[in-house]
Amino acid sequence: MFQYVIESDTGRVREVNEDRAAVLKRPSGLVLALVADGMGGHNAGDVASRLTVEELSRKFLEAEEAAFGTAESKKDWLSEQVLAVNRYVYEHALNHIECKGMGTTLIAALIEDEDCVLCHIGDSRVYLIGATVELMTRDHSYVNVLVDNGEITQQEAEEHPKKNWILRSLGTEPDIEREMHRFSLSGIPYLLICTDGLSNKLSEREISSIVRSQASLAQKGKALTRLANEHGGEDNISFVLMKPRGEEV
């Protein structure tokens, strides 16, 4: 039985929640999970994330079933629709001066049975959590460029003052490079899709400890949010925690 919990918390510092998270399901059983983090420091980040999630949700629910017939067609559909939504958000900003420069990160995951097709833009993250914690995405960030060039280590990147400088976001340019992945959820107890308001505050060990506890899925969601706030809560905290299989209610 597919189960999930969604949490989206403003945190302890910011006045506006610029994150959006949603899970949609078609009659066929195909699921679309979305997490978007409106860009801090940009105008109307909350508008960018809201428009992105609303528009992708609408496209998903209205699409013809044939669009999802194969893994390759799912990947093509998701890539094309994210490109279209990027253009939609970009043009909205052009036509509304108060939204100039707005943007958002995006994780969009199409899930059917044990198959997951993923589109990733920015520094929101996807973790597979079982006996170990596996990070399935790589932040599109300035510090990761430094890591790739051998200028700093991965450990130094985690503490770098420019850690939150991202190089790719949806809606800020007329075109956007999408990073696509496909992987199996076979044998994976939990899938976590989150904004950096969670991943910057909790270590993988802390995340794993909560997610693999005996608490209910809803209780685990509340515990993750609570701990991120206890660690400072400087950013909005949003995530979708999924349990692809199991009896838990």
From TrEMBL:
Stored InterPro entries: PP2C, PPM-type-like_dom_sf, PPM-type_phosphatase-like_dom
Listed Pfam families: PP2C_2
Domain of life: Bacteria
SUPFAM superfamilies, per the entry: PP2C-like
All copies of domain PPM-type phosphatase, residue ranges: 3-244
CDD domains linked: PP2Cc
PANTHER family: PROTEIN PHOSPHATASE 2C, PROTEIN PHOSPHATASE PHPP
Name of protein: Stp1/IreP family PP2C-type Ser/Thr phosphatase
